Structures are given as C-alpha cells and as structure tokens.
Amino acid sequence: MAQVMEPSAGQSAGPPLSGAPLTDGGPADPGRPIPCRVLLLEDSGMDADLVREHLKMIDDHAFDIHRVETRQAFIDAIADGGPYDLILSDFDLPDFDGMSALAIARDRLPRVPFIFVSGMLGEENAIEALKKGATDYVVKLRMERLQVVVRRALVESRDRNELADKRAALAESEARLRFALEAGRLGSWELTLATKRLRVSSICAANLGLSDPSEISTYDRLLELVHPDDRAHQQAMVRQAVSSGSPLDMEYRTIWPDGSVHWVQVRGRAVYDKDGTPTGLAGVSLNITDRKKAEERQLLLLEELNHRVKNTLAMVQSIARQTLRAAPSVEAFPDAFQSRLRALAQAHDLLTRRHWQGASLSEIAALTLEPHVDAGRVRVGGPPVNLTTGVAVSLHLAFHELATNAAKYGALSAENGRIDLDWEITPPAGPAARDGAGHAGPTASRAATGALVLRWRESGGPPVVPPTRRGFGSRLIERGLAHELEGDVALAFDPAGVRCRLVIPLSSRVNPQ
C-alpha cells in the first residue's frame, strides 16, 4: 500500500520528492515507492483524512501531502513552487473557491495535474472545471474513483512532461545546429529521390545566388544552376553516393541569375529506409568562390615564381654589367652592385607579403626599377596614387616583366637605352555612352568614372622585333592584368622601343591622394 506523510497545515513538508521517474505498472526501482508530493486544498479535516486514506490504497507510491486551508496559504504554497507532482482541491471553501485556485495553479504550475475532490454534485461543475484546465473531477460520494484518477493523472503527467522536455531539448539542439550552420556559412539541404523534391535553407539558396529557398524546389532546378561543364560530374557523384552509400563530397561551378560564375562545395549522405532502399540525400553546402580565386592566384604566382627564377639570372647579369660600366673605379663596384641586388630582393619580397596593406604607385615603380634608376636610365613620374594590395602586386608583376624584357632584349640591354614611366589621372568625361541595347560599354564606363593612365616607353635600345608567339609575360600583361584591374592594356612592339599603355578605372582600389 502507499505511504502517506502529512505535515500540519501551513508547515513545511520536508525536502522535495518530485522528479523520480514513474511507470505505468510501478516504480522504476521495484524495491522503492515512487515519491509524489501533493498540495491538498481542503478546509475539512475529516475530508482531508478521507483523501489520505484513499491515497494509501495506491500501491507503490509514497505521498507527501502538504495541506492548506485558506486562499493565502494556497497562494504562498504555489509561490514557493513546491515542487509538487499533484494538486487536489475542494470545489467550495469558506473564503475561496476551487475555480479561482485552478486559475492560480494553471498560471503558476501549468504542468502539474489539478484534480477536484468535491462534495458538490452536478455535471455542470465538472464540465466547467475541465474546460478551465482541470485534470479530473471526483465527487466525494464516490471516493473510490480517486485512486484510478490519481494514478492515471500521474502517469499522463509524467508522459506529457517527458514529451515536453524532449521537445524542448530538440528545439535547443536545432537552435544550436542553426547557429553552427550560420556561423560556418553552411547551407543545409534535403533531396527526396522518388519525387526529386529539394528542400534548402536560406543560406543554401544564397550559395546558389538565390534570395528565396522556394526558387529551388527540385533537383532539376538545381541542375539548371550548375555550370554545363560540371553537370555530368555532379550527377555522377550523386548516383555514386546513392548506390554505394559512400559520403558525397564534391565541388562544382554554378551560374548565378546575374550570369556570374561561383564555386560551391557540397557534402552529404544517402538516407535509407528499414529495408535498405535509398530514399533521399541530405547534407550541407558552402560557397567556396573566394577560396577558388585564392587558389587560382596562388597558381599564377607559383608560375610567375618559376618564370622569374630564370629571369632573375638575366637581371643580375644586366645589373652587374651596367653597374660595372657606370662605376668610377673597380673598388666602387661591389657596393653599388650589392645595393642593386638588395633592391631586386625587395621586389621578390613584395610577392610573398600576402597581408600587405597597400602602397603608393611611386613606391611600386621605385621598388621594381630602383636597380636602374641610379644609373640615370629610368625616369619615373606622376601624381600620388594609392593602391590596394591586389592592384599593387599586379602592377609590380607587370613592371617586373617589362623591366626584365628591357634588360634582356630592350632599352636596358644597350648602353644608351632609357625607359620613361609616367602616369596621369583623367577626370570623368560625363555620362557614359550607351550601346544600341541601352547598356554602357566598358570604355564609356571608365570614362564616366575617371581613370589612371600609365605609359611605359623605351628608347635608345636595339631595334625591336615583334615576338613570334606570346610568352608568359605578354599573357600576364595583356590578359591577366586587364582582367584583374578591369582595365584596358595596349602592348606594342614598336621598332624604336616597346610601348605599353594601361588604363585603369578609378575606384576604392585605385584612388588618387
């Protein structure tokens, strides 16, 4: 039989006993009763004893009853929070009524079962109480029902509380997952194989250049966004992940609605039913466009480094020869030669400073051409211009290629040859001209924003013979530089000397002081 421990009205009921697990058939520990703390609102001592005796008949439970008789005592007990596992209340009290008690309990302790134990008959009272949130209504003339009602209420409460706790834990887990995905810029996606239905998160849609996840609701729509050259590979990787159960890990290009090309990395796994039949795929996506651009820049720099190893020897030979010619004596040669070699080393250092915060155009030109300026064979001039790191590195590479070519074949290979490098700022030329479709052309756009115009001119060297093929240096200047700086490049192999003209639109990357 159940154990009942009842303190005097208004006294403390001892340490809380709630929180122990309940089961449909008995306690989790067969040798120990399930503790259950009860708040009893009853002004009649006889009726309170009657409730206590019926609770004793509930097997495997140890009831700790805290009895109160007045409104204030009930409010104080509720305010303390118990914790209580069950509330039993009379329906009619001298200074209080059960419906008011129910309202207070539902507001303060909404998860605790509330059962009326009333001497008042009438279905209307019971129905109204249940509508207001009561768990059950037991008439004192039929107290034998109390045992069944209490046991059922405790079991159902336990189940509801466990479900609520699991839902809260699930919601918290989902919130942490969303935070982790957003912090890592990861988009989530799910694909149903039978219908090809695709569900994506907002970040996943953004990784594909879309503002609304509803814009990509099927796998076929996704394929429309994949670069045509990568579609076959993308489909093959999906089929392999589904058929073999191996993790899906691939990178491919996508075409955004504005026509720009971006890279995305996709990872995931196939989902199977209980029979082992694949039903879908789920995973994450990441926009890796910046990483791919960095890798391309790194490859370009590595290629340039390999190319420059060969050019450096020719540059050193030219510097040595020209320094020896200009030196007033043999003793003065070593210091002048070493000084120019140090300047050349500084130019190499510039290529490795990945975190450089920019420089002026004069500094870039001086850094590249300093070995020849001292000999009076190079003239550099122009207004102050600030360059960001990317522009500074790109121009340094271009100047280096031009200087290397001049030292090997052009003006700097002859004793009387010279180089003029100057630049100017052209102001905006008014509204940009538009083509037949109403769009501004690139040249007109640059005129509308203003531009930096640089001119490289060689003279006094041997007659220039146009190359039969474009080498790496020419490709770097004519293609790479034009693309990186969004400008115009004109490289001419004039018989009197190489000419190069660069037109770079003014922007936050190229800014006159």
UniProtKB/TrEMBL annotation:
SMART domains assigned to the protein according to its UniProt record, in alphabetical order = HWE_HK, PAC, REC
Annotated Gene3D superfamilies? 2.10.70.100, 3.40.50.2300, Histidine kinase-like ATPase, C-terminal domain, PAS domain
Write one Gene Ontology MF term: protein histidine kinase activity
The UniProt entry, under InterPro entries, shows:
CheY-like_superfamily, HATPase_C_sf, PAC, PAS, PAS-assoc_C, PAS-like_dom_sf, PAS_fold_3, Sig_transdc_His_kinase_HWE
Protein's recorded name: histidine kinase
Spell out the Pfam families in the cross-references: HWE_HK, PAS_3, Response_reg
Q: What is its EC number?
A: 2.7.13.3
Q: Which residues form the PAS domain?
A: 173-245
Print the organism lineage.
Bacteria, Pseudomonadati, Pseudomonadota, Alphaproteobacteria, Rhodospirillales
